[in-house]
Amino acid sequence: MTGNERIKIFMQLQNKNLKFQDIADKMEIKPQTLRSYLNKKGYKLTNGKYELKDDIDDIKEEKKQIEFNEIKNTKVEKKENVKKNNTKRKTQKPKRDKKVNLTPEDMDKLCEVYDWYLQVRDVKAIKPKTKTSKKDIVIEKNNIDELKSTSIRVDKKIWEDFERLCSNSSFTKQEIITQALKNFLKENKHLL
Question: What is the pLDDT of residues 119-153, one digit of tens each?
């Protein structure tokens, strides 16, 4: 696949509003490699979408002109307000706008952090279970006279669920397995 074809496919998938991770998966490229390639070819992330830097520069230039005019107008208004307020309070000083200057490298890092955040935000935090009304397994009162030790193979997911069940119970694994087998045998006694 040539570079132009890769960019064309990326832009088509991006226009379908797919997530960056999904686009990388469909193109069979690591997200970091795709991001680096786009940056190398002059594409920058703007408003959640990658666009060619020349297009972005045109938009930024228009924005700068608008922002400059707005800032100029607000400064005139602030000076007038300061003059009015100074007649009332001579100790008050005009407030300065605080601005942060970001380099393109800083913007790339911020974009990476934001991409990571979008992936992680949907993951729910693991919270401990609240113990409002404790319920437990019903086990028949039956002393286990003789024990049999054996080795079995069980589906991993089932075993993990079983261990979680045992950790939430006041009974031992031995007692729970015995009761489970007993219940199974009762249900299927016609096969004995």
Answer: 777 665 544 555 555 577 778 877 777 888 888 89
Residue type, 70: E
Percent of the chain with pLDDT over 90: 2
Say if CB 35 and CB 46 are below 8 A apart: no
Angstrom distance (rounded) from CA 177 to CA 183: 10
Neighbour-count burial of 17, counting CB atoms closer than 10 A to its CB (0-12 exposed, 13-18 middle, 19+ buried): exposed
Q: Letter for the amino acid at 59?
A: I
- End-to-end Cα, the chain, rounded Å: 64
Residues 173-179: contacts with CB within 8 Å, 24+ apart?
174/144, 174/147, 175/139, 175/144, 176/137, 176/139, 178/144, 179/137, 179/138, 179/139, 179/140
Distances (CA, A) of 175 to 136, 150, 155, 178: 13, 15, 20, 5
78-102 core/surface letters (b: 16 or more CB in 10 A; e: else): eeeeeeeeeeeeeeeeeeeeeeeee
Rounded CA separation 148/62 (Å):
81
Q: How is residue 164 written in tokens?
A: 């979680």
